[in-house]
Write a structure and sequence with these properties.
The structure holds two protein chains of two kinds. By secondary structure, chain A is mainly beta. Chain A has four helices and 15 strands. Chain A has two domains: 97 residues, Translation factors (Elongation Factor Tu (Ef-tu), domain 3, Beta Barrel); 157 residues, Nucleotide-binding domain of ferredoxin-NADP reductase (FNR) module (Rossmann fold, 3-Layer(aba) Sandwich). Chain A is 13% helix and 35% strand. In chain A, the strands form three sheets. A seven-stranded mixed β-sheet of chain A has the order 10-9-8-7-11-12-15, with helices on both faces. In chain A, strand 4 and strand 5 form a beta hairpin. By secondary structure, chain B is of the alpha/beta class. Chain B has a single domain, classed as TIM Barrel, CATH 3.20.20.70. Helices cover 33% and strands 19% of the residues of chain B. In chain B, the strands form four sheets. In chain B, strands 3-16-15-10-9-8-7-4 form an eight-stranded parallel β-sheet. A four-stranded antiparallel β-sheet of chain B has the order 5-6-14-11, with no helix packed on it. The chains are: A mainly beta, B alpha/beta. At the A-B interface, strand 13 of A face helix 1, strand 6 and helix 8 of B.
């Protein structure tokens, strides 16, 4: 515990670019040398609303990708959905805007030491950090297959360049407006067998993560999921973003998704108790 | 630069600076030490610890509100034994000054907690949190009742003796705060922590039900600052000899100075740290600069300055 978020720093960082991608915004932010310590799964906490904002809390965003040596120095990419007041403000920040950011925060996806078959499953813009992860896994020699799902086509985030590191990509929408009609979880049980999957990496809504975990249970597949609970601080001091997780002895406690997560071993998360008092 | 004596005292405890974390807003202290040296502030007020480990309330545990937030944690914590074994040694090792906050469900539990703290070295004071709003039974918020408040403080005082200052943390959600403050001081409190969060609620318009798992939560942040300043002012006016640790929405040096002028001997920073991990350090530096700019040569001169007679 001595080194909680040991690479994290609070910085003022420049927005390099802000582009609309479907229903989302892609922000590239110059974070200098901190880009070298960011790992897939880590997140950034950003102040929103400017100096006299009535929004007192930071907003947490998964880092989708980093580039240590872009022309403008080390950068990180965030995919932001303009849902609430804070994310709308962030999506309105143009090139040159200065943001107060704490980064990198939280746990990262574990990378296998040997090249194995892995399956990446993303829901909505939860797919964003999976593309950066795919690049890292691909470089390790892993075979990476990806499933993306959303309610409708405009909520699928799948950039062209992101597909390079992926062996196959299948898309599912509930309304059938893109890819196959249905839920992203439907083909998983079959793929685990057919592709001899060793690890599933997932990021998206909690209901999707829980459904994946049910499929993975009883198999040898390791399920690493990036969980989502609303956070006030992002650095482990407020105790709001907790969820019930068992330890190796089966003792269940409320762990913080900001520092014990966001990436957790899905088999330890007590999905049926999420949102309930223990 | 003008010399400024920035030190303060709470009972017989001395602190080099008047800036503290607020209980429940710094976890174990380790989390913040990634961002600044925690011995550079006045002291760490720990999360309120209970006798047994506690899981706290269901999520969602927070909701942002205009210039503030609601929290509904419910005193999640490891219990006093694990806390003394794991968390306190770290703070001692960091040379941080420590105020341990305790919370109990019964008068006896507070006394038992105090007994366990009696022999712990490296502690500057004890905060007795009798006002956490996030408990199942509002009748158990001791600080809403003069007699219950007195009984808790009396029990702790009997256990602790005179060696450690006892600071009673009170709720603003009462009709007559001054009489509750006087009651706990009579019962043996050396100081007061004002204010705990203000009970509030948010309705989620998607579910059309209370948003928080615990339905109600404690409101904190700049939204409650005027309530806190008022509470400190009223209590200091009646019992000026009793040191007050003032808190409630302090987010910059000006806020801190308001609280001190109202009568606080020190300030605690909570919600501001959620939005800015280095808030305590900025507030400390801004407060120091402001005191110097206004011609004070010591923090002590500024405590309660807003109460001075018209002629001054």
């Amino acid at each position: 515990m001595a080194g909680i978020n040991k690479n994290a720093a609070q910085i003022r960082a420049n927005v390099v670019s802000n582009k609309r991608v479907g229903q989302y915004h892609q922000l590239i932010i110059n974070i200098g040398d901190l880009a070298q310590t960011c790992r897939p799964g880590n997140f950034a906490a950003i102040s929103v609303g400017g100096e006299n904002s009535r929004m007192v809390l930071r907003r947490a965003f998964a880092i989708s990708r980093v580039s240590a040596n872009s022309p403008s120095g080390g950068t990180m990419e965030l995919i932001v959905a303009p849902h609430g007041q804070g994310s709308k403000w962030l999506c309105a920040q143009g090139e040159g805007a200065i943001l107060d950011i704490v980064v990198p925060l939280g746990t990262a996806f574990g990378i296998p030491t040997e090249p194995v078959q892995v399956l990446l499953v993303g829901g909505g813009y939860g797919s964003a950090p999976l593309f950066g992860l795919a690049e890292v896994l691909n470089a390790k020699g892993c075979r990476v297959d990806m499933l993306l799902g959303a309610s409708t086509a405009s909520k699928i985030y799948a950039p062209m360049e992101g597909k390079r590191a992926v062996n196959s990509l299948r898309i599912y929408t509930e309304d059938g407006s893109m890819g196959q009609t249905g839920r992203v979880t439907e083909p998983i049980a079959g793929l685990i067998q057919d592709l001899n999957i060793a690890v599933i990496y997932s990021c998206g809504p909690m209901a999707m993560l829980s459904a994946i975990d049910e499929i993975a249970r009883g198999t040898d597949v390791v399920h690493q999921c990036a969980v989502e609970e609303s956070m006030a601080c992002g650095i482990g001091i407020c105790m709001t973003c907790v969820l019930p997780v068992a330890d190796a002895d089966g003792n269940i406690s409320m762990l913080r998704s900001c520092i014990d997560g966001p990436v957790m071993d899905g088999s330890f998360v007590q999905w049926d108790k999420v949102g309930k008092a223990l | 630069m003008t010399a400024l004596d920035f030190s303060t005292t709470l009972g017989n405890a001395w602190f080099p600076a008047p800036t503290f974390t607020a209980s429940g807003c710094a976890s174990s202290g380790r989390e913040l030490s990634q961002f600044f040296d925690i011995k550079a502030m006045g002291g760490v007020v720990t999360k309120s610890v209970m006798l047994k480990a506690r899981n706290g309330r269901a999520t969602p545990r927070m909701a942002e509100t205009p210039s503030g937030m609601l929290n509904s944690i419910g005193l999640q914590g490891p219990g006093i034994d694990a806390f003394l074994a794991k968390d306190v040694p770290y703070l001692v090792e960091q040379k941080a000054r420590i105020i341990i906050s305790i919370a109990g469900e019964t008068v006896e539990e507070y006394s038992t907690l105090a007994r366990k703290l009696r022999s712990v070295s490296g502690i500057s004071a004890i905060e007795v949190n009798i006002s956490c709003p996030n408990v199942e039974n509002r009748g158990l918020v001791f600080a809403c009742d003069t007699e219950a408040s007195r009984r808790v403080i009396d029990g702790v005082r009997r256990t602790i003796g005179g060696e450690l200052p006892i600071i009673a943390k009170l709720s603003p959600d009462v009709t007559d705060l001054v009489s509750i403050a006087k009651g706990v001081v009579d019962a043996g409190a050396d100081g007061l922590a004002l204010i705990n969060t203000v009970l509030g609620m948010v309705i989620n318009l998607d579910t059309m039900r209370p948003h928080l798992g615990g339905k109600t939560g404690g409101l904190s942040g700049p939204a409650i600052k005027p309530i806190a300043v008022r509470a400190v002012y009223q209590v200091h006016a009646e019992i000026p000899q009793v040191p007050i640790l003032g808190m409630g929405g302090i987010s910059n040096g000006r806020d801190a100075l308001e609280m001190i002028a109202a009568g606080a001997s020190g300030v605690s920073i909570g919600t501001a740290s959620f939005g800015n991990p280095t808030a305590i350090m900025s507030i400390q530096n801004e407060l120091k600069d402001l005191l110097i700019a206004k011609g004070f040569t010591s923090l002590r001169q500024a405590i309660g300055y807003a109460h001075r007679p018209e002629s001054e």
